[in-house]
Amino acid sequence: xxxxxxxxxxxxxxxxxxxxxxxxxxxxxxxxxxxxxxxxxxxxxxxxxxxxxxxxxxxxxxxxxxxxxxxxxxxxxxxxxxxxxxxxxxxxxxxxxxxxxxxxxxxxxxxxxxxxxxxxxxxxxxxxxxxxxxxxxxxxxxxxxxxxxxxxxxxxxxxxxxxxxxxxxxxxxxxxxxxxxxxxxxxxxxxxxxxxxxxxxxxxxxxxxxxxxxxxxxxxxxxxxxxxxxxxxxxxxxxxxxxxxxxxxxxxxxxxxxxxxxxxxxxxxxxxxxxxxxxxxxxxxxxxxxxxxxxxxxxxx
Length: 301
Known about the structure:
The protein is of the alpha/beta class. The protein has helices at 11-18, 45-55, 76-97, 129-145, 173-183, 200-213, 230-243, 276-282, 289-298; strands at 2-6, 25-30, 38-39, 59-62, 100-106, 157-162, 165-166, 186-190, 194-195, 198-199, 219-221, 228-229, 252-256.
């Protein structure tokens, strides 16, 4: 089975690369290429279509994305090209070649105002450019490869939404907090935004299960188990890092409101995903987020 992976140099891409099933022939790509990876710029739709025609994969695992939530507010064209245009281009080309598409998406397609976990079928209502661009990618998938698409593309696309992705490499909240715990005596972190962290290790396992099992469910949700605020995660990073001998003394974490820490992009205040049905379908047991965070810290390079 041939799988074309995008974003292979990113934090999720590296975890996916480490967990490749034996039956998979992996074509690993990233924007600039190098280090054994092929170059594939997701901002260039025709380049994306050409990659599908050239390699004719059984699956495209689109783990690459524009994820700079705040910067997207000043770069909407680039965000939409990568997050909306690339999935559309892949889907268009796959209609010709016959493959399938697994699109990794985000909790940010919801506005976070309902105060309870979001179900698979709920209507998208993103707040900022990043969320709108990811929603555009989902919409393209549904139009061309969704169960309601009709024709040859019907049922050949899977959207996998996740939240607060963190791993032992790359840029993410857990690694930023670890650095700040080492550098400062006090840290201010927002406490009124609630979601759930997701380890790249468990997310990669879910992605490969979708592909290996040939799952055709149009939308899935995957995160680690439980709920947390950014404040909770920051405190946990300090406590766990001290237990593991990664720092002598954690910083004091002070809770802030969103209003006290303004950023260019508005974020959902409550973006928990209802993952119960997806976990049953994938037959994967959930990992409590704090346990997954500990495993992340234990595997730092």
